[in-house]
Amino acid sequence: MMNTNQVPVISVILPVFNSGQYIERSIKSILDQSFNDFELIIIDDGSSDDSFEILSKYAKLDERIHLIRRDNQGLIYTLNQAIEIAKGQYIARMDADDLALPKRLEYQLAFLEENQLHLCGSSVQLMGAATGYWYYPHSHAGCEVELLFGVPFAHPSVMGHSSVFKELRYSSEWPLVEDYDLWQRAWAAGFKMGNVREVLLQYRVHRKQTSSLYHQQQAKNSQQIRSRHWQQILSVKLGISPTEAQEAEKDLWKTFQRLRELKQCYKGTEAEKILHHSFLRLCSHRFHSWVLERMS
Questions:
Q1: Which end of the chain is more exposed for a tag (fewer CB within 10 A), N or C?
Q2: What is the pTM of this model?
């Protein structure tokens, strides 16, 4: 049932840019949710295709849609504008070419409240140029250590308390990895996170996504965030100074030692399992960054 106070429980934010090929199915997947006390904030970021015509049609049919059209400002600006507008207690991300499964909002809302979390994502099914599934850590501790290697969520699957998004926002200093930066800063600020185990989103993979077109810059920015998290988690868990953490990052033997110590902090947890092959994962990331630096 809809909230009689006209203040929705959830604000779904959906940035759109030239997504006419997919946007109709994406909107319908949100409008058909089992939980319907939400507003759908759609910002057309200067599309030149038929996206706005499709969006306008749906905005006239459903009063839960809040549609904005303006000149192109980019994804980070668009996301922050939607966050500013959002009225809901929770904010859910959505992308214009993905599909939310019918119980996505219902399950994520229950998961957040039952586990007293601030942010959560879900497992996702790939479609388009790739098939398969992506699974993410279920627990906060699992997400905490996964941040050493990359994002703990599929970005368009994320839902969380509005206060987290409104306090932290997406940073323009981290283009291409704005979500990785946000989740790491959310962890550093003390917010708790996790993932619903069920698949709640179908994630479309394109052959020419941003991650492919700007791979070098994305990899460089990601490595900087990994390094930031490495220093902070070693400080929190092992009491190691930033200087010592930096030294350990440059020395493979010291890296191995610190990871063994870190693993002991998570004995018997999901995080311990994630850290089982952590040395090889970190070495792989660092070698990749080294190669890209010499190619640039």
A1: N
A2: 0.93
